């Protein structure tokens, strides 16, 4: 293996090897992969493990390790989480059979944003007896719109109570390379998942699982096994090679390139806001435009950008998110020109703010029970009262509006329709 024997139409087949002698083996690494991972560990100041299946695999491994840790300590096998999680977190909960409790979220104008998780978590702690405290808090930071949570404060709240802090940092691998690191591990998280392919320049599928050196030792000790429980036994060596080469770049010129690029981005952001266009989020490397502030929908603005050759990361009715890297200087110049050249439109329907869920939806069954239930596809218009079987979402962003096991209420129908979701998988009745 592989069947192509190093030759084929893509031209990359020669690099697409398997575990031949000398090539090491990802989940029992003791050769070149171990060496490369230890360089990455040095760079990130953590126990760093490669994923060739993105942050999705690292998230599953984090959740699995958390379940193991709860078992080892005889603690409540439950995680408390903000609702704006990626779907891989939900499949992980189902696979590992870990319960979840959702934090209250404030109305932030989008289900993609959790608002002030620190405040919501502090409230949660205030009303939860010590013996019922879950084993971990899970947050997504940065989120899809570029909002970042106060990881340092959350870590302190967790650690005071013997809880772990897990961070989905899929959008924030680069935070380690800032002049002053904002990487979750440096701010106190116990584990985090980074996508090296999203904000760094590795191939699609490249990711990391980082475990803090201050975290309980059993987490790092069991990390390889945790990854292998969910991963393919044939990890892509192309992706591994891209992670290995990325180390060189991160140790070389990348920090300087990033610093210079962020200066440019800040100038672009300032020009855009000076024109009266509202930007959201505090993440250095994202530009998220609240398109309605110009009378546009996010999807309309994305089309305008597309006509000029700029493909956004994400758009919906309200927002357009751009995710540049230092290699997209030219694109950012064009995108800024396009945004500055927009003629404000008279606000009619676009003025209405996005509908949001009114409180937490009724939970009928656990995430696991729902995901393992027999599904039936139901038009959203007829879904009132039904129980969601899988995440009700658009992809991207693969962030659910309703969680598996929740009942569809009137408010949810309005939210789903607003985001263009016309059917969902409900538990078959
Ligand atoms: C917030 C968030 N978490 C996790 C993931 C999964 O990352 P990956 O595609 O690297 O598996 C994504 C992917 O878009 C994401 O946006």
Please tell me how large the radius of gyration is. Answer: 22 Å
Helicity level:
25-40%
Taken together, the total number of domains comes to: 3
Ligands bound to this protein structure: pyridoxal-5'-phosphate
Order of helices and strands: HEHEHEHEHEHEEHHHHEEHEEHHEHE
Low-confidence stretches: none
The fold-level CATH name of the largest domain is Aspartate Aminotransferase, domain 2
Q: Could you name the CATH class of the largest domain?
A: Alpha Beta
Strand order of the largest sheet: 1-7-6-5-4-2-3
Q: What proportion of the residues form beta strands (DSSP E)? A: 5-15%
What general outline do the C-alpha atoms trace?
globular
What's the CATH superfamily of the largest domain, by name? Type I PLP-dependent aspartate aminotransferase-like (Major domain)
Termini, distance in Å?
A: 46 Å
Give the count of helical stretches.
14
Helix/strand-derived category reads alpha/beta
CATH architecture identity of the largest domain? 3-Layer(aba) Sandwich
Pick out its properties.
seven-stranded mixed beta sheet; single chain; binds pyridoxal-5'-phosphate; Aspartate Aminotransferase, domain 2; four-stranded antiparallel beta sheet; 429 residues; Ornithine Decarboxylase, Chain A, domain 4; 14 helices; globular
Short description:
The protein is 36% helix and 14% strand. With 429 residues, the chain is α/β, with parallel strands linked by helices. It has 3 domains: 232 residues, Aspartate Aminotransferase, domain 2; 93 residues, Alpha-Beta Complex (Aspartate Aminotransferase, domain 1); 61 residues, Alpha-Beta Complex (Ornithine Decarboxylase, Chain A, domain 4), CATH 3.90.100.
